[in-house]
């Protein structure tokens, strides 16, 4: 499985438009080297910026 994808490939995997991927990279400071983007860095940056839903937390709930 490739980790460095073109903006089009990454857009397909993230259910986004190609231009949106490039725009988000510029906003978040995710580098594009030789036309490729690190998928892990991109998705982590999106999650940390609150633009991508974080995985559901598991474990015990606090008592009400």
Residues in helices, as a percent range: 40-55%
Label the overall shape: globular
Give the ordered list of helices and strands.
EHHEEH
User: What is the count of helical runs?
Assistant: 3
Q: Which sheet architecture does the biggest sheet show?
A: 3 strands, antiparallel
Distance between the termini: 44 Å
Overall structural domain count:
1
Class per helix and strand makeup: mainly alpha
In terms of quaternary structure, the protein is: single chain
- Radius of gyration computed on alpha carbons: 14 Å
Poorly predicted ranges (pLDDT <50, ≥5 residues)? 56-61
Mean of residue pLDDT?
85
Strand segment count? 3
The main sheet orders its strands as 1-3-2
Estimated share of beta-strand residues? 5-15%
Could you describe the 3D structure shown?
It is a single chain. This protein is mainly alpha-helical. Helix content is 45%, strand content 11%. The chain has helices spanning 7-14, 18-28, 39-48; strands at residues 4-5, 32-33, 36-38. A three-stranded antiparallel sheet has the order 1-3-2. Strand 2 and strand 3 form a beta hairpin. Helix 1 (7-14) packs across helix 2 (18-28). The radius of gyration is 14 Å and the shape is globular. The relative contact order is 0.18.
């Amino acid at each position: 499985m490739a980790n460095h994808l073109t903006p089009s490939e990454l857009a397909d995997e993230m259910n986004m438009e190609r231009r949106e991927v490039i725009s988000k990279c510029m906003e978040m400071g995710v580098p594009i080297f030789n036309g490729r983007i690190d998928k892990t860095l991109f998705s982590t940056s999106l999650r940390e910026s609150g633009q991508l839903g974080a995985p559901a937390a598991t474990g015990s709930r606090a008592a009400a």
